[in-house]
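Worked example

This section walks through a single chain of length 363. The input is the sequence exactly as stored; nothing has been trimmed or padded.
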Amino acid sequence: MTQRLSVGLLFGGESPEHEVSIVTARAIAGHLDPARFDVRPMGIARNGVWIVTGDPFARLASGERPERSTVPFLPLEKGAEATPLPDLFFNALHGAGGEDGQISGYLELLHRPYTGGGLLAMAAGMDKWITKRLWESEGLPVVPYVGLTEEHWQRDRLTCLAECGKLGLPLFVKPANLGSSIGVEKVKRTEDLATALDRAFTFDRRVLVEQGLDVREIEVAVLGGDEPQVSVPGEVIVADEFYTFEDKYIHGQSRTEIPARIPEDLVDQVRRLAARAFTATDGYGMARVDFFLERGTGGLFLNELNFIPGFTSISMYPKMMAASGVPYDELLTRLIDLALARHAQNSAKQKGFQSGSSWFQNS
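Given that input, the structure is written out below as C-alpha cells.
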C-alpha cells in the first residue's frame, strides 16, 4: 500500500475573512481521500500564531489567541516547536496572509509543495487594482475605475473626489486587497463618497473605485496551469443591490444558477476570457473568475479573480467544477497533484550560481 501523504491544512489567519476560512477548511478536511491523505489541521489564530495541537478547529472557533513560540523565527504556538513538517500544505487561507502571496513565499522557504499559485500570481490576483492593470495590458475588458492610495487621499481629497466623480454615479468603493465583499459600498450620492472612502481606507491603504453598472454576475471556475480547464459558467442572481457579505454567508437570499442562462457564443467568450485572465497573472492551481454582463448593452467585463474562492461543497467554485465533470473529492485530489507537479518542476531548476572566481571573498 502506498504511504499516505501528510497534508498540513492551513486555515483561519489574521484577515477579516478568518471565519470564512474556517468553514472552507472544515469542508476540505471532510472530503480529502483518507486512503491517500493524512490531514493535519493547522489553524492560524487571529494573532498570527499557528495552532497545531489538540483540535485546531475548536480552538480557533473559540477565539483562542495562544502564546507564540519563544523561537523568534517560528510562528508556531509555544510548546509545539518540534512539530514535524507535513509532506504538503493545502492553503485554505482566504484574504491577506494566505491569498496575497505571503504564505506562498513562506512555504517556498520551507521547501514544501503547496496548493494554489505562487507568490507572484497570488499577490497580483489579490490586489484588484493591480489585477485590472495587468488585464488592461493584455487588452482584456474591465469596468472603468480609479485607483487611490491612502497617501494620495490624505494629501489631496478634493482631487481624488474629482477623479472619482468623472466615473459618474453610482460608484462602488472597494478595499483593493479584501474579498467576500468585506468593506465594499455602493455610493449613490456624491456627498456620500468621502465617507465611503474613509471607511474603505480603514481596511486597506489601496482602494478601488469603480463605475456602477447595471449588470448580471457571471462566474467560471478555472483549474490547472498554462492551459487550464475552464468550467461551465454560473450566475449569481443577487437579491440585494450587490452581492454582500451578509447575503453570501448569513442570510443567503441570493441564488445561483449553473449553468448560467446565456447564449452559447457568450459562454465560449466567457471561457476564453477567463483562461486569458488566469494566465495573465501567472495563475496556477485554481481560481474563480468573475464577470459583469451589462444588461443594457450586453457588454462583458472582467470583474476580479479569486485564487482561494469559497470552497465548501455548496460554494460556486466546486459546484461549477462538478457541473463540468470534476466532483468535489476529485477536485481536491487534483489540486494536490498540481501542487506536487509544480514543486517538482521548481525543484528541478538550477538555484545556485558559482562564478569560479574568488572575486567576492575580499570585497
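What to look for: The longest strand covers residues 215-224.
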